[in-house]
């Protein structure tokens, strides 16, 4: 019975001895919860029309939902504080002898300390949450669903606390020194996240075809790396889906509920690991750097290898030539040497130990060199790998700058979820039965084209090698592949292709003209039939107008446009300027006239006769020409062709030089007011809003001159976009103008 009573006395005694800890945690929780909630409520009161959702919804779904990530940072810091301060006695021989002499088993003593640390966080945290609930109830914004959200919030944060707290206890048990224990906590807490980051950096640097689509922005998650560290698990738990379909994006701003079980299991396992380490730890380990000598070489290797390469990336970031291997190798060698010596000194607590264990030093050096060689020289064949047809289930393809249509998804009241064109295609495209797809992939992997980079120097523009390279690379384009294998895995690769190669252009054309490619590349064709848009923006060369159509009229327009778009060929894009574009819009609930594009502008070509006729029936003639009488003045300014070069690649020596290279030619715009000249200009220009979606393939724009139009009447519904001339149609009077 004395042991049982002592268990609770130990908890009570520890709470009294460390009363500063729950007080500090209470203050931190107060600032993170009550103060932040009151600030948010004040904003709702002062700006009631700023939000499209109610305060009740905000408190339930956001404050105790997605924004819980902010509170999780505070929770982890509190866990480190409770864990390291609670088991600091393990680092003192005097204290450990005292505590181990008490009439209580080591197991019970451990759990008394463990429970005490949990209570020091739990009590002030739950108390602050209850105060927040009372504040919300006073504003009458608490519902039954809110109470469930608050209970879930408490449960999740307590799970995260136990997870981080156990890591701190493990670090304290593995070490015999407080400083080393703090460093060990940081390493254990974030190690798998560091590995994920390092793999991403290494692959992005050394593999030309490396591409990330899954977990965009959260590249520390890699399916080949076990996310065992709490930092990885916490971030994954709160991460929003990225490369995903419309339905899956509805998880945005919500917890990944499927991952809650993983957090709970991890918290239990880490707690048991802390207990086992405590039970196996010898009392004589107090004051020693490492409590278990057998773990010393393993820990050295686990720390030295990844952090040596991170040192290499640090020196690259500091260098003006981040692509060169010189500073990277120097950083790796420097980091490796310093880390090895530093860890030996830490383990021996003496400078004399710096050069001990030469065999392990050599072993770690060989491992570091092998990792570098594998990535630097692509020993695994990453860049040249293309799956065999028998391994492939389907393939997704994203051709850069060729009708790039992304998608903005309003997943709930709190925000939009944007999918880039490549992400949308990777999530929605599954091409099968088109031999050109894999033929182009194998051709690109075999050729291994890559952009060449130059160091800037005065007169580089006169170098034949530089100009020849620049001209050749002007035809280079990126193309991404998502190989969906029969085993369920998806591999992503990005290649550089040369569209000046007739065979490449043929394969590219056959892919683009594939019905399924176009269908999966255009969000409007996949999801729009169940949507009702607030407006349709119709834009021609000189006019832009938002029109309101009934759902039936919208469906009719989409159906007609889709039928003609599916017949569009790459040859048409290369040789035929579009006459207009359509864009389907949603109105922002907070702004009366602010619209959000659903999937971006979609071109209308002269061949789309039915689409043009239907839009004209709706009130807009996209082929209408502008008369000189409607224009007051036209201004023409010469552009810097150097800055407009499609894939211009130069590393500049200074920031000033970079700015100089990318500014327009210093010349004043020439104004034209003569009606005949104005009409000739109007007949030969096209809106530059049509350029960006096709400029990588179209060859009918003359971008040497920038044309701006000032209209006679301000109430005309004309586009205020700038224009450029069609190639070969530059008026003679502009060619002879001395000021241009």
Number of DSSP strand runs: 15
User: Structural class of the helix and strand makeup?
Assistant: alpha+beta
- Determine the N-to-C terminus distance: 99 Å
What summary fits the major beta sheet? 5 strands, antiparallel
Strand fraction equals 5-15%
Percent helix: 40-55%
Task: Give a written overview of the molecule.
With 740 residues, the protein is of the alpha+beta class. It has four domains: 290 residues, no CATH class; 133 residues, no CATH class; 94 residues, no CATH class; 108 residues, no CATH class. Helices cover 51% and strands 12% of the residues. It is built from 26 helices and 15 strands. A hairpin with a 2-residue loop joins strand 2 and strand 3. About 3% of the residues have low confidence.
Helix and strand topology:
Elements lengths: L1 H16 L2 H27 L8 H12 L1 H19 L6 H8 L5 H33 L5 H31 L3 H29 L23 H9 L21 H21 L15 H23 L6 H24 L9 H19 L15 E8 L7 E6 L2 E5 L1 H8 L6 H13 L16 H10 L2 E10 L4 E9 L3 H11 L2 H7 L1 H5 L7 E6 L3 E4 L3 H15 L4 H6 L4 E8 L7 E3 L4 E3 L4 H9 L13 E8 L2 H4 L10 H7 L8 E3 L2 H8 L2 E3 L13 E11 L11 E4 L5 H4 L5
Antiparallel strand pairs: 1-4, 2-3, 4-5, 6-7, 6-8, 8-9, 8-10, 11-12, 11-14, 13-15, 14-15
Helix pairs in contact: 1-6, 2-4, 2-6, 3-7, 4-6, 4-7, 6-7, 7-8, 7-10, 8-11, 9-10, 11-12, 11-13, 15-17, 20-22
Write a brief caption for the model.
By secondary structure, this protein is an alpha+beta fold.
What are the salient characteristics of this protein?
740 residues, 15 strands, 12% strand, 4 domains, alpha+beta, five-stranded antiparallel sheet, 26 helices
């Amino acid at each position: 019975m004395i042991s049982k009573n002592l268990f609770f006395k130990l908890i009570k005694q520890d709470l009294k001895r460390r009363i500063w800890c729950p007080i500090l945690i209470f203050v931190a929780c107060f600032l993170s919860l009550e103060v932040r909630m009151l600030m948010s409520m004040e904003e709702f009161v002062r700006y009631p029309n700023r939000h499209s959702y109610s305060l009740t919804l905000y408190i339930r779904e956001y404050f105790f939902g997605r924004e819980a990530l902010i509170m999780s940072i505070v929770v982890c810091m509190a866990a480190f504080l409770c864990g390291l301060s609670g088991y600091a006695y393990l680092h003192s021989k005097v204290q450990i002898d005292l505590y181990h002499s008490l009439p209580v088993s080591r197991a019970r003593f451990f759990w008394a300390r463990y429970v005490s640390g949990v209570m020091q966080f739990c009590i002030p945290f739950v108390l602050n949450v209850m105060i927040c609930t009372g504040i919300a109830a006073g504003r009458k914004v608490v519902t039954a669903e809110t109470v469930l959200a608050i209970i879930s919030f408490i449960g999740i944060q307590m799970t995260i606390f136990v997870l981080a707290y156990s890591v701190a206890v493990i670090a304290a048990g593995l070490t015999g020194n407080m400083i080393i224990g703090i460093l060990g906590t940081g390493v254990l807490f974030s190690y798998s996240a560091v590995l994920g980051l390092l793999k991403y950096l290494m692959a992005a640097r050394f593999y030309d075809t490396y591409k990330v689509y899954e977990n965009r922005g959260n590249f520390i998650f890699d399916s080949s790396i076990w996310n065992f560290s709490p930092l990885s698990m916490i971030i994954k738990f709160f991460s929003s889906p990225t490369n995903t379909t419309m339905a899956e994006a509805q998880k945005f701003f919500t917890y990944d509920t499927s991952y809650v079980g993983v957090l709970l299991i991890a918290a239990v396992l880490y707690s048991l690991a802390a207990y086992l380490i405590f039970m196996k730890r010898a009392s004589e380990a107090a004051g020693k750097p490492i409590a278990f000598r057998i773990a010393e070489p393993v820990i050295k290797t686990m720390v030295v290898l990844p952090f040596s390469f991170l040192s290499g990336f640090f020196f690259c970031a500091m260098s003006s030539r981040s692509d060169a291997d010189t500073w990277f190798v120097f950083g790796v060698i420097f980091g490796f040497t310093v880390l090895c010596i530093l860890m030996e000194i830490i383990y021996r607590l003496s400078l004399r130990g710096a050069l001990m264990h030469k065999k392990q030093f050599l072993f770690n050096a060989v491992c570091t060199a092998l990792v570098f060689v594998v990535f630097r020289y692509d020993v695994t064949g990453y860049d040249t790998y293309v799956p065999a047809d028998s391994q492939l289930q389907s393939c997704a393809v994203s051709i850069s700058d060729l009708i790039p249509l992304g998608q903005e998804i309003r997943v709930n009241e709190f925000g939009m979820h944007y999918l880039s064109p490549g992400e949308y295609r990777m999530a929605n495209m599954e091409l099968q039965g088109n031999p050109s797809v894999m033929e182009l992939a194998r051709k690109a992997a075999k050729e291994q084209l890559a952009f060449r980079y130059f160091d800037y120097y005065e007169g580089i523009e006169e170098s034949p090698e530089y100009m020849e390279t620049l001209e050749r690379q002007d035809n280079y384009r990126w193309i991404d592949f998502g190989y969906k294998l029969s085993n369920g895995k998806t591999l992503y690769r990005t290649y550089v292709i040369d569209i000046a190669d007739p065979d490449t252009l043929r394969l590219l054309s056959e892919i683009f003209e594939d019905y399924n490619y176009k269908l999966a590349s255009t969000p409007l064709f996949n999801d729009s039939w169940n949507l009702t848009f607030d407006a349709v923006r119709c834009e021609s060369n000189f006019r832009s107008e938002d029109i309101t159509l009934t759902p039936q009229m919208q469906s009719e327009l989409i159906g007609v446009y889709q039928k003609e778009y599916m017949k569009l060929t790459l040859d048409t894009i290369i040789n035929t300027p579009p006459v207009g574009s359509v864009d389907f819009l949603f109105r922002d609930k907070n702004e009366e006239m602010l619209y959000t594009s659903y999937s971006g502008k979609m071109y209308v070509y002269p061949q789309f006769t039915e689409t043009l006729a239907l839009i004209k029936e709706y009130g807009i003639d996209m082929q209408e020409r502008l008369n000189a009488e409607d224009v007051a003045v036209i201004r023409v300014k010469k552009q810097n062709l150097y800055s407009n070069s499609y894939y211009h690649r130069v590393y500049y020596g200074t920031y000033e030089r970079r700015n100089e290279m990318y500014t327009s030619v210093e010349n004043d715009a020439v104004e034209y007011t003569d009606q005949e000249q104005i009409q000739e200009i109007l007949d030969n220009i096209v809106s530059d809003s049509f350029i960006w979606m096709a400029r990588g393939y179209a060859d009918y724009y003359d971008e040497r001159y920038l044309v701006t139009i000032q209209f006679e009447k301000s109430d005309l519904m004309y586009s205020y976009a700038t224009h450029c001339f069609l190639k070969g149609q530059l008026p003679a009077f502009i060619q002879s103008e001395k000021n241009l």
